[in-house]
């Protein structure tokens, strides 16, 4: 089990401080990452390529339910965190209970904040915060046809 990459907010703050002292370029992204799939992996690899260290903010179970509905998450937060931490491109994972990652962005102070191609920079509520901290927002294209919703839909259609 990979747990050394799964950090509390306090441990993440110290980890980021050391990374900044070493002049490493910090990249941050966040999401639910329910049912990890190749679209997620390619997205995270692209995000990691934009810097030296990738921090993933992971919505906890309560925030996933609020954002995605009462049937989600499909996979509990601890397991989602463990799967993300097992990826070579991910350097740190931190769970958060809020619906938005503003507090984690304040802790990480990323050089780059990455979101998927289903977002537009001008629609991201956290973009002004990232930029006020000296970071930039980058949008990474999604892998067509690869989403948790599409996978769930195919599974449900197969069960009929």
What does this molecule look like?
- The chain has seven helices and five strands; from the N terminus they run H-E-H-E-H-H-E-H-E-H-E-H.
- With 160 residues, it is an alpha/beta fold.
- The chain has one domain: HUPs (Rossmann fold).
- The radius of gyration is 15 Å and the shape is globular.
- The mean pLDDT is 93.
Question: Termini separation (Å)?
Answer: 36 Å
**CATH domain fold name:** Rossmann fold
Query: Which secondary-structure class do the elements indicate?
Result: alpha/beta
Count the strands?
5
**Most strands sheet:** 5 strands, parallel
Helix proportion range: 40-55%
Number of H/I helices: 7
Q: Mind telling me which CATH architecture this is?
A: 3-Layer(aba) Sandwich
Element-by-element helix/strand order: HEHEHHEHEHEH
Shape: globular
> On the 0-100 scale, what is the average pLDDT?
93
Q: Name the strands of the widest sheet in spatial order.
A: 3-2-1-4-5
The gist of it:
The chain is of the alpha/beta class. Helices cover 41% and strands 18% of the residues.
What is the strand and helix layout of this fold?
Layout lengths: L8 H13 L4 E6 L6 H11 L4 E7 L1 H8 L8 H9 L6 E5 L5 H7 L3 E5 L10 H6 L3 E5 L7 H11 L2
Parallel strand pairs: 1-2, 1-4, 2-3, 4-5
């Amino acid at each position: 089990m990979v747990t050394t990459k799964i950090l509390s907010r306090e441990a993440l703050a110290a980890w980021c401080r050391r990374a900044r002292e070493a002049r490493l370029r910090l990249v941050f992204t966040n999401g639910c990452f329910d049912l990890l799939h190749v679209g997620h992996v390619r997205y995270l690899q692209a995000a990691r390529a934009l810097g030296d260290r990738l921090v993933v903010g992971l919505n906890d179970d309560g925030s996933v339910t609020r954002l995605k509905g009462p049937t989600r998450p499909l996979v509990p937060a601890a397991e989602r965190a463990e799967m993300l931490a097992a990826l070579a491109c991910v350097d740190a994972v931190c769970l958060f209970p809020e619906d938005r990652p503003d507090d984690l962005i304040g802790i990480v102070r990323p050089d780059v904040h990455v979101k998927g191609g289903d977002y537009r920079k001008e629609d991201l509520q956290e973009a002004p915060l990232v930029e006020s901290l000296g970071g930039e927002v980058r949008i990474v294209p999604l892998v067509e046809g690869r989403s948790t919703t599409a996978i769930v839909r195919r599974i449900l259609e197969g069960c009929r």
